Amino acid sequence: MNAASDTVLRISPNRAEVIVEREENGVIARKSITPDSLAQCLLSSRYDNECHPTGLLPEGCIAVTMTSKHTWYFLRYPELYADISYYDTEYLHFPLPRLVFGFQYLPREKKVVKSYLCVVKDERLTPDTPLFIYPFSNVHGDSSICLGNNALPAYKDPARLHTLAAYILRFPNNNDLYSSSNNQLNLEYRDLLEQLKGKEPSVYYSQVLKEKRQTLKNFMDIARR
Prior knowledge:
- By secondary structure, the protein is an alpha+beta fold.
- The chain contains five helices and eleven strands.
- A hairpin with a 2-residue loop joins strand 2 (17-24) and strand 3 (27-33).
- It is elongated, with a radius of gyration of 27 Å.
């Protein structure tokens, strides 16, 4: 490169000023520009043609957030029934409200390190879809799932993560993190289960669920905490 035609940037942090200096044929020209102008110049001249494929996504995936270390997958659980248990009692084909799960996945380690769960309105999902308080146990107030002593399986292929939602729903339920104030009926856990078994899932939205005053966007923002 010909040094006589180089462009030199002189940055003055004290004055928040950038001096562009260019010499050509022995003549030096200087111009003062703002740091914002320099930043815009650099950004507009950047050329990036790299592709970053996600690979096959899990069934029911509604959103993905990728960082340098982990990937968040948000999945709408496709079923409105599941086989659950409360202590030693099994409730087969038990009705559920519409659920969305969030999983923080580490691609290098091939494992899920954080799991979240929310109840959404049973409608076409948008960022403004309202949330409801999860009426059962095993979920903290911040929507994180309490795994207890249950170990999560490894997932070499994140496209299989949709099976993790069903796996978590099969965890034994007890009174940990349960509160009768989280349902409109103010019922204790076993009474609530007995009341709901055999009912249609729509009963949650008319008789059981309490609003959380949050939206699906608020839930998915956990990826940026």
